[in-house]
Structures are given as C-alpha cells and as structure tokens.
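User: Before I run my own analysis I want an independent prediction to cross-check against. Here's the chain; please return only the structure tokens and, at the end, one sentence I can use as a sanity check.
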Amino acid sequence: MNDFIFYFKMGLFHVLDIKAYDHILFLIVLAVVYEFIHWKKVLWLITLFTIGHSITLALSAYGVLKIDVDLVEFLIPLSIFITGLMNVLTASKASVGKENQNLFFALFFGLIHGLGFSNYFKIMIGKTSDKLIPLLEFAGGVEAAQIIIVLTILLIGTLTQSIFNVNRRDWILVVSSIVMGFAFQMMIDRIFW
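Assistant: Structure tokens:
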C-alpha cells in the first residue's frame, strides 16, 4: 500500500507542480474549448492524455525508447503552442461544438509530454523488475491531478462566461492566447539547435 501511495502521489504532484507548469498550460489549452455539458468528451480528453503520457513512460522505462532530452524539452512547449493556435484559429467553430481536434492532441501530445518525464521516472523506479504496477499507480495520480485541473478550468470558464457575460469565443481566444505567450517564451528558452 505504501508503494501505491508513493507512486500515486508522484503522479499527482508531477502534474500539480507549479514549477513544472507546462503540464498545467497544456491542460488549460486542451480544456478551454469545453463546457460542463461536454463531460464525456472531457473525460476522454483527460484519459487520452494519460494514455499517451503512460505509453511513452512505459516504452522509456523498459528501454525501448530513447530520445534526446533537449528535443523533448522543446517539443513540449511547441505542443502547447500548436494546441493554443488551433484553438485561436477555430474559436468561432469551437463555440458551436467542434472540440474533437483536442481529443487527438491529448493523445498525440500526451506521448511527447510523457517523454519529458521519462528519465526521472526511470530513476524513480530504479532497477525494479516490475515496472508496470508503479507505472499504473503513477498514471492514476496523473489522472487525478488532471481531473482537478480540468474541472477548475471548466469552473472558471463557466463563472467567467456567466458572471461577466464573456462569450465563449472570446474566452477561448483570450485564454489560448495567454497560454500561447507562455509557450512561446518556453520554446525560446529551450531552443536546442
């Protein structure tokens, strides 16, 4: 039980760590196009990201996948920027329910984000022969943290749109643009060539 709590907490705090805010930024741009009435899609969004994240963690933990850390550290903010840009370009369409592109981004870019944590995860599990159980426990923590973040984004969006009478399109444009600004600065800071 102690191992479960350890790996679950590691997954939880991996996402909620404010110093590693790239994960939070990505979840913001993924979730900003949704409303509470889209709870099924939001659940898929969170789960697909966790699946993508876990696949690359597993491949790395088992020594199947080795990718240059500097490249991955650049690709993470690039994935955030691309998702935000797609939100901006399709904000008027998203306001009438076209959010499916973010489900693809959640899975595909989840693969990249998993690579960003893979070296630390390998160190964390050490030479443990059973890597699957810690990976699943860690993924459970990641999933729980993502639910917290996405529900917070949905709540803030709902309050902003209802109390301040901000239309959904403007909400998507403003939030996505702010996140793109952060991601752009991160890309500049992480240029690897």
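Sanity check: DSSP finds eight helices and no strands in the chain.
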